[in-house]
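Encode chain A's predicted structure.
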Amino acid sequence: MQAGTMSRTAKGRVAAPPRLEGPAQAVCEEVAKLPGVSVQAHWQIGSQTLVNGTDFYVGEDELGHVHLDGEAHIPVGRQLAAVVIAAGLARKFPWSREFVVVDTQDVARAVWVFGLRRAQIDGAAHDALCERVAERA
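Encoded structure for chain A:
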């Protein structure tokens, strides 16, 4: 499991995700189509009743989440985060170097970064993921 993430089981109760606005909802719909992805409500920190977006999981591994404000947080790990940020495909997450932040206004870019994380969960080598980033940048 990626450092800084919570397993699906540790997240607590499962509930249906909310419908988000505009591009954020389009991102959620596309990410949900990735192989093996499960979708559920993303809880406000410390709550099991206040919804703050949509969580995505592959088994117990966190794929990432999209907040109600449209900001996506994707746990790609420190090394890959630095590469993705340097390529201008995401920005730093202020609370952890393990995650990147992607604005869902650019639907294609957000879905692509979630796809990169999906490949990472599948075991793609770091060098291969870096090559994908270089090609995209």
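The beta strands are 37-43, 51-58, 61-67, 71-74, 91-92, 100-103.
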